[in-house]
Amino acid sequence: MSGELCAVVLAAGEGLRLRPLTEVCPKALCPVGNVPLLDLALERIGALGLTGPATVAVNACWLADQVVAHVAGRAHVSVEPDRPLGTAGGVGKLRDWIDGRAVLVGNADAYLGGAGIAPLLAGWDGTGIRLLGVPTHPDDPYRFGGHRFAGFSLLPWSYVERLRPEPAELVHEVWRPAERAGRLAVVGYPGTYVDTGTPSDYLAANLHAAGDGNLVAPDAKVSGHLHRAVVGNGATVDGRVTRAVVWPGGHVGADEHLTDAIRVGRDLTVPAR
To answer: Which of 33, 98, 153, 235 is a plausible cystine mate for 250, CB 3.0–4.6 Å?
Structure first.
């Protein structure tokens, strides 16, 4: 299947709900468990044998220079210069690169903890749409057959070739039409899925990555007390950190108790609410 399949990681969004964190860096590069979300997505795709710019593409728009520099030749990069084209428009802009192949589309901001995504491909005949999903409630507007979309989908070329590089979303252009036509299937994801779009959910993903303990980067300096904390490279913690994230290079002073929040640098604190 890998010879007929390529992958696209969507990383162009502005991350409006995650501001002011996304005024510092694009959402796709926000770290979860001290690893940028984009890298987590590339690792999951790489586990399926999809690596390098011939088989993996990343799109970028908001703070695109940071994404381009971070990818650094590991994938083909499609820059949307004016505004994000949305999930469908972003794939549509990559039609010439996709070039007749089926495509695995992943959202960079989807945190998946636990199992891999190989079951999404198992037994797929390459004709219908597949979505990775987790159970959800009946009133969820993103509900597909009792499941909520969990960050990854499989699209045949017959659907991709119709997409245009214009602002549009896959849910409207592809998934719902395929569902109505009986050509959409949901593959249940047995692990933890978090849409990291808000500070609260972003913190939840980090706490899941930390488990019941702490995640501390090797070159972080910690003289204070940590409880379920994630502390990034070059960060300094002299005070207390409880259920919180300290970004790379961040600082928590000796007289501070950072709780249920994200710290960037010395002065930016984003409550997780």
So the answer is: 235
Q: Residue written as tokens 């979303």? A: 169
Give me 133's structure tokens: 């999903």
Look up tokens 């590069």; give the residue: 29
Q: pTM value?
A: 0.93
The full set of domain ranges for the chain reads: 2-195, 211-271
pLDDT digits (tens, 9 = 90+) for 220-232: 999 999 999 999 9
- In this structure, of 106-110, 114-118, 157-161, 218-222, the range with the lowest mean pLDDT score is 114-118
Q: What is the pLDDT of residue 138?
A: 85
- Domain boundaries 2-195, corresponding CATH code: 3.90.550.10
Cα dist from 106 to 17, 118, 129, 231, whole Å: 19, 13, 14, 27
Contacts of 243 (CB under 8 A, 6+ apart): 203, 207, 227, 228, 229, 259, 260
pLDDT at 176 over 50: yes
Strands 102-107 and 147-155, sheet pairing:
antiparallel
Pull the structure tokens for residue 19: 């501001």
Residue 57 · residue 94 · CB < 8 Å? yes
> How far apart, in whole angstroms, are the C-alpha atoms of residue 246 and residue 234?
10
Q: Which strand (E) or helix (H) includes residue 69?
A: helix 64-71
